[in-house]
């Protein structure tokens, strides 16, 4: 890893990409500390331990602690992407048509996604502001008038659009997927405070007789995090190699050619999607805090909360569904079969065409079964630890956060290695 970074900084283009990415992340962290005008950001501390703030902060990117202009983060954009991708599954003919138009269709789809992001961001900002103002006994908004709420919503929506644009800039001119890198930066920024909080509660504030127990408990937590990190890293890098043969050059390549399919084909996307799917209704419900005593509100709160058993079950089911869904989005068996035929390639013992498509579909189903169980367990383990051992939910590195961090780091490593390899080939050709 360190040798890769050392070689990367020797290459001018890669070095510029790294510095550009760091510069954008610096702007993001500055914005994450600029509070929205008209609010008392310190009032958020009153509800910071409810579990709702850490849950919202995971996908938003860490700007909610200060109720900053980036409080919503990229969460509305992710929600809009989910909706558009679902509608592209033969639900809206126009979106399906755009999906087959290549680059032109992709631009049209992105434009619609931006418009939907505008709507989602505005609704979420109103819901969060109203909800947190009630939870803090009307202490968040200094002047709770309709004009103030609309002004706050406009500022937070603009912050989401600015953050999405910064993410696009990272994707185009920096390293990694911009949206994922921004979420990664927000998670990492909260990690030191989370670890310090555990140390303070279990060691510093413990009595002299219980201090050694607290130290052992703290060390056990760190070891558990390292073990889970190692397991997640291993699974994320595990692949299923499908042998490929070429009729025109079978004698040359033969068994050396493979189609690599990751065991976790969908990556961390299902977890991000499932989190957004839970967070959006929770955010909207916050606008109806005055109906806390009514049955419909209590039922919906139970369903859309990771702190309850029904909420955890629904969250796990969403991860499973999105794992299967996104696996077939990432690896389209029909297109894969067509591309193999165009390249005069085939899978041994499998007929080209429909048989190849069916073979890949069954393989994806098996891989997604393993991947969904793995993602569900990793996402729920920290929540179970919080409920059983009383770990603070604000540690900053829960299951979702851990998957995002490891996924982004591996993707950045692959991209840097790819760029380094490209430079070696260019130098060799010259």
Total count of strands:
4
Shape: globular
Kindly report the spatial arrangement of strands forming the biggest sheet.
Answer: 1-3
Residue share in β-strands: under 5%
Over the alpha carbons, how many angstroms does the gyration radius reach? 24 Å
Tell me what the structure shows.
With 430 residues, the protein is mainly α. It is 69% helix and 3% strand. The protein has 15 helices and 4 strands. The protein has helices spanning 2-10, 12-31, 52-60, 75-87, 93-99, 103-135, 146-173, 178-204, 211-237, 269-285, 295-303, 309-330, 333-342, 354-389, 399-429, and strands at residues 239-243, 245-246, 258-262, 345-346. The strands form 2 sheets. It has a two-stranded antiparallel ribbon. Helix 3 (52-60) crosses helix 10 (269-285), helix 6 (103-135) crosses helix 7 (146-173) and helix 14 (354-389) crosses helix 15. The protein is globular, with a radius of gyration of 24 Å. The two termini are 28 Å apart.
Give the helix/strand layout:
Blueprint: H1 2-10, H2 12-31, H3 52-60, H4 75-87, H5 93-99, H6 103-135, H7 146-173, H8 178-204, H9 211-237, E1 239-243, E2 245-246, E3 258-262, H10 269-285, H11 295-303, H12 309-330, H13 333-342, E4 345-346, H14 354-389, H15 399-429
Antiparallel strand pairs: 1-3, 2-4
Helix pairs in contact: 1-15, 2-7, 3-10, 4-6, 4-10, 5-6, 6-7, 6-10, 7-8, 8-9, 8-15, 9-15, 10-12, 12-14, 13-14, 14-15
